Amino acid sequence: MMHRCTLCSPIGWRGGWRESSPWRRVNKWRRPGLSGDGAGSGVLSFSSLFMAGSEERRRAGSIGEPLPPSHEPPLAQGFPEEQPRLGPPHREHEEEDGEEEESERAEGVLDEDTAAEGLHTLGYSAPGTEYVYLHLSLPGRGLSDISILSGYTHLQKMELSSNKINDLSCISHMPYLLELNASKNQLTTFFNFKAPKNLREADFSYNQIPKMQDLSAYHSLTKLLLDFNEIEEIRGLEKCHSLTQLGLSHNKLTAIRGLQNLPIKILNLSFNQIEKVNGLKNLKKLQRVDLSNNKINSLQGLEEHDLLEFINLEENQVAELSELKWIEDLPLLRVLNLLKNPLQEEDCYWLSAIFMLLQVTELDLKKVSVEEKVAAVNNQDPPPEVVAAEDHIIHVLHNIQQPQRVLHRPCHTTRTAYFGEENRLDYYFISQKAFEEMVTAGNFLLTYTYSGHSYGLARDTVESIAREGLATCVHLEIEGVRSLKNTHFKPRYILLVPKDKKKYEEHLRRTGLFSRAEIEEAVARVDMYLQINQDFPGYFHAVINTDELDEAFTELSHLVKIYLGLEPPEFLDNIQGTKSRAGSRTQLLPEEEPSPGEVSDFLEPSPKNYPRDLQDVLNAAPGSVVRCWIPKSWEVF
């Protein structure tokens, strides 16, 4: 009695045995360590082995039914070496015959022995009726003909890289194939076979494929690699609704087309001849894109990809930092590579790029530190306090380099004079170049920019007036106030701001001095001043409502006289509240109960700093007082 083996593809367990079954070259294909020892025991067998003809099988009787599979698959290795090996009589003669046949085997043609060496990973077949080898790995074998694999119908993963294969038609007989690696072969086409309906991953890199095929039958395909080929156009992917990774690097593409509405997450189009980033608009799930080594000069087309995390644009032709505007709003962008692009030659490239892309953690293959992000913000869009501090530092440095002298003159500005203003009386109206020369000479105590014009307060102007025991009122914007707070001067700051913005806007229009843009800007900044007064208690020593200018001027004059000691502060009844002679328009301290009004709460900051500030106003020796007038508000120092 001997075992009988029923052949299946690529290898299967079958039950049943008979007294005699003719075998040919059994010893050549049997896997080492696999044998049977008893009636009904299972054996492993390969397809494409030759058995006796139909006449012998009829004489032997029926082959029997397969045994039901066990719950645990048998191990491919580890069978006792002492177990008898399966094989027919006259084994020695068959081995000699096999060696002779092997020597005559055509070069590059895959045979059963070589195929057996590449089989691994035992498991259930797709129908679940038998145990089979699921994977075949034959890389670098010099194979050119693999037609024998047509009988290996149960394969699910096949590795055939680094061979000389130019025909994959055998895959038409593998309905359960899930993964295929046919890279580094001699293929001139791909998918020229009946589609395995469940194929998920395919690698055809490093071949000689000139064009893409229609892949409408591959609905399950999730990964397709076609790198290092000769493809000139993307096509045939319209119905690949499961495709998440596509590789087409090192081809001959000149444009991005044929990718509409695909669920691609990883896209590699590097080393092509692409000039524009278009065709990606509908790839809403895109997470990583590699466009390095192309001819791209604009990043337009990468916007509105909210899931994009990685962009590689190394060695392209992006020349302007402004191109980063197309990707600055990508919320998940973390890695950006712009190496070997012309824009790297721009001044402050590193900090400018970081500032525009604060969400990035890696730029040009370098980690971006928190300190660099802070430096980028301070360099490109510094907070007001940083601007004021830098302005103060500049003027101090320039001033200490100049000889000390006193000159009497008004403030300087680069804007043109309004109607009724006179040069050297209201302002020194100078050019931008002259203004910059004065900055370099250290002549200014502070400078700031408003509505596109520069304003400067000369240090000597304030000091000369203070030396004569007079008060000087200078009108400034909040930018100038911030800078002045960094000096050694101790002025009193009085905010003059309207409550009625509509009335204020009408007043500005009636003057006929300001453009529409200037009026809109002035009105828009009213809320900003009110918010500063509320958020920073004590920032201003007093607040005066300017809805009625005559009354506001009376109140301001009275405060200046009190400061200079020219008028006693008899109107101050107590430290908790102060009312001017004109009524309740001036607020040095908060009222016990807020006065009614649309913005009264904003006009009245927290009282915690008022006792000290008011005492300063009452007790300070005569010195500098600065009045600030802007189209919508006054500030008095």
Counted beta strands: 26
Strand order of the largest sheet: 5-6-7-8-9-10-11-12-13-14-15-16-17
List low-confidence stretches.
1-87, 404-408, 571-584, 589-637
Calculate the terminal CA-CA distance, rounded to whole Å: 116 Å
What is the average per-residue confidence, as pLDDT, rounded to a whole number?
76
What portion of the residues fall into strands of 2 or more residues?
Answer: 5-15%
The portion of residues assigned to helices is 10-25%
Query: Helix count, per DSSP?
Result: 15
- Shape type: elongated
| Biggest sheet character | 13 strands, mixed
Oligomer: single chain
- Rounded to the nearest angstrom, the radius of gyration is 44 Å
Instruction: Look at the helices and sheets and give the structural class.
Output: alpha/beta
Can you describe what's shown?
This protein has 637 residues and is an alpha/beta fold. Among the domains are: 382-468, Guanylate Kinase phosphate binding domain (2-Layer Sandwich), CATH 3.30.63; 490-637, no CATH class. It is 24% helix and 14% strand. It contains 15 helices and 26 strands. It has a 13-stranded mixed β-sheet. Strands 24-23-22-26-25 form a 5-stranded mixed β-sheet, with helices on both faces. The protein is elongated. It starts with a strand and ends with a strand. The model is unreliable at 1-87, 404-408, 571-584 and 589-637 (pLDDT under 50).
